[in-house]
Every structure is written in structure tokens, then in C-alpha cells.
What does this fold into?
Amino acid sequence: MSVFKKRGRWWILYRLANRKWRREPVGTSYTLAKQVEAKRKAEVAEGRFFPERKTNRQNFQEISDNYFKLHGQNLRSKSWSQMMPRIIAAIGAKPIGNITPQDIQAFYNQLESTSSTSTANRHLTLIKAIFNKAKAWGTFHGENPCAAVKKKREPNHRLRYLSEPEIKTLTENCHPRLYPVVACALMTGMRRGELLNLDWRDIDFGSNVIQILKSKSGKPREIPMMPTLRAILENLGTPHTGNVFNLPAIMLRRYFARALAASSITSFRFHDLRHTFASHFAMKVKDIPALQKILGHASIQMTMRYAHLSDTHTAATMTQLSKSMPIAPCTTPTQIAPRIAPPLINAPINFVELSMRNADVAQR
It folds into this structure.
């Protein structure tokens, strides 16, 4: 039955263009229900019925507020707070049903031209996530306008890390409150958020490890403590509950900027301390799988960007090793192949004959 009564109201039932059934309340009049039913069927048949346009009346500001209210506590990164002002300024006042892929593409292009491809990609990811959640919660209907906008490939950036003299200079110029944070970053490769959220309960002096329970990848990990780092942490005072480093993020930025200026170190971010640890680990320890575990990378591909440093340092080490090897110099061919007659060793190689032999072997 396409028209039925429920709890004193008449309802109509009809099938949409996508073959799904839809129920709609009309009122207390059976005659009106029949008229609305006929109208809906005609609109569906003529392709003029779009129910999502009637429900997508909220503006983007409203669904984004709902997104962070219900889902914000689940986000590991808080960088959204820096991205939202730009997004709201561009599309915040628009009804979500009126936001088109062209609007998103224009915003993406504008961001890329004034900032970077990486910045544009991060903003696009956030907008897409907000629409997807709104769709899952039933407050948005239709296609996500971000689906038609493709992220551009981000350019490879130069890996910036400190040399040993720069490490010494920087740590000498650190404020006393900043020094233990920088030292821990240099000796563990921990991210800034992991450092500022590090709790005394996460440090196991018995096992000599630091436990990261909440990481970017979502997986816990353990980092062995160097003796120098252990001494620094023990000197902070008697271990207790609460944050290990009592340093707000705003003060960390200020102290770090002053330390860089005093050390004449340029083009360097706090996150590059993590790169510094990883680079020196790769060059001196040369164990990429172990480095992956310490850094908490979800895939080995992320860690492999440090592999070339390991290869370069290994080659230099082999060169140094060769200088100390007491191997007598080669004076005659018989020292290399004593069972082969010297005339045969000195005979020229017939590359044509050699290639024919290889072809004959391949056929066999």
C-alpha cells in the first residue's frame, strides 16, 4: 500500500530513482496524501525530485561545529584548529547542499598558490572528513563535493638535520627549561606532542625504556633510554605523576626560536630534531628496521628516506677499514688465481665469442 495511516497521520510510500523506497508524512487528509503521492511519483519519473536538497539546509559552519563536538576528542592531531579559520572564511556560511566541487577546487587552488601543496592537501582532507561524518550521521545527503577534487603530489623536501657541531651549539644555547626537552628529542626521535604529553608513569627506569602509549600511528612503542638521557631525566627531580616536561607549547616555541637564533641555525624546525636523531641513528647504527620501531613508523617506506645516509656512511666506514687492513699488495697474477696459467690470465677477452656462449647456454 503506497498510502497508509499511522498514529493519526497519513503517510505515502514511493520509490526513488536509485530504486530505494522512501516514506514521507503528509498530514491528516487522505485526499492530500493521494495528491502528494501522485506529485512525488511524477517528480521521480521526470528526474525533478532531489530530497537531499531539502535536508542539506545547514551551513558548513554548523556541521563542522558538530564534527568537532562529537569527534574532536578522537583526533590525535590538533592542527585542525589552525586550518578551520581559513575553511570557515571560504565556505562556512554556505548551505552544505549548495557547496559544489567547483567551490572546493577553487579553495584548494587558492591555498596551493598562497601556501603550498601540502597545506592545500591537509585542508582538503579535513573538509572531506567533515562531509563524510555528516553523511554518516544523517545530517548531509548526496555526494561529498570533495570526492571530485584530487590531491596533488607533494614535492620531496630536503631532509634537514643537525651536524654534530650544530647539536653541541644548540644544546649549549638552550634555556634551562628547554634543554631537557631538546635533549630528549635528540636522543629518542619523539614528536613534539609526544614530548609535551610524556608522563612520569611512561618512564620505566627499571627497564630503562620510555613507553609511548598514544602515537600518531595509533600503536604503542618503547624507546630505549641512552645513559645521558636517563641522567637528564633523573636530574629533573623525584619521579612522580604528571607531565615530565612542565613547559607550555607557546613557551617551547619562544625558547626554541631564541636558541636557534643564538646558535645561528637557520631553516630548522622543532620537528627536525626528530630527523636529526633518525639521521645519526641511520649513519652510525645502520639498522633501518630498528629505527622504524623507535620512530613508530607504520610502514618501512617512511623510514627508508634515511637509508641513503646509512649507505653513504657505510661506504665511508669501509674506506677507513680498508686503510687498516694488513693485506699485502698484489704483485703477480698467480697470487689471484694460482691454478690458472699466466698466459690464460693475460689473454684478451673475445666479447663476441663470450656473448655467443652465453646465448648457447640460455638456449639449453
Remarks:
- Confidence is low (pLDDT under 50) at residues 333-359.
- Strands lie at 3-6, 9-15, 21-27, 203-204, 209-212, 221-224.
